[in-house]
């Protein structure tokens, strides 16, 4: 019996890597008057549904997908959260 | 006395809006063998620090920033989480 999961994946630039998009947004916000803002960093947020036999299998497949396609682990970190949707 | 907050902002496409990038990632994952994946949607994940007098003020400013710059509310939804870092 397989289970359907909802996954939320966060891909962020490693802290040692410059983030020009984040810097641009920060400077835009400051020019708009939000001078209280600092350290803006922009990453990716990926949502998906996947079917697996159990949570461990789902986590293992997500790890592989992140390593192979979703994140560039040379410059990015990733983490994810899983929630169970239904048994199918 | 002001407080420094860490904000995590999630910007996602509205469900009625097509997500060609998500579709491309989904089809890439399927071609790699992850046929159990569906409904891939790609959004933005923004982290920032901001200083405010209290949590309500921080939330109000974040709402404004999202409405005015960070999200295009015609096609995107946003939500955020705030956590307190320090009193400064």
TrEMBL record, chains A, B:
Q: Which InterPro entries match?
A: PurS, PurS-like_sf
Q: Does the keyword Transcription regulation apply?
A: no
Purpose of the protein: Part of the phosphoribosylformylglycinamidine synthase complex involved in the purines biosynthetic pathway. Catalyzes the ATP-dependent conversion of formylglycinamide ribonucleotide (FGAR) and glutamine to yield formylglycinamidine ribonucleotide (FGAM) and glutamate. The FGAM synthase complex is composed of three subunits. PurQ produces an ammonia molecule by converting glutamine to glutamate. PurL transfers the ammonia molecule to FGAR to form FGAM in an ATP-dependent manner.
Question: Where is the protein situated, by its record's location annotation?
Answer: Cytoplasm
Extract the NCBIfam families matched here.
phosphoribosylformylglycinamidine synthase subunit PurS, PRK05974.1
Q: Name one GO molecular function term.
A: phosphoribosylformylglycinamidine synthase activity
Which SUPFAM superfamilies does this UniProt record tie to the protein?
PurS-like
Report the EC code(s) recorded for this entry. Answer: 6.3.5.3
Please provide, in alphabetical order, the Gene Ontology terms of the cellular component aspect for this entry: cytoplasm
Annotated catalysed reactions: N(2)-formyl-N(1)-(5-phospho-beta-D-ribosyl)glycinamide + L-glutamine + ATP + H2O = 2-formamido-N(1)-(5-O-phospho-beta-D-ribosyl)acetamidine + L-glutamate + ADP + phosphate + H(+)
The protein's assembly and partners = Part of the FGAM synthase complex composed of 1 PurL, 1 PurQ and 2 PurS subunits.
Which GO BP terms apply? 'de novo' IMP biosynthetic process
Family from the record: Belongs to the PurS family.
Name this protein carries in UniProt: Phosphoribosylformylglycinamidine synthase subunit PurS
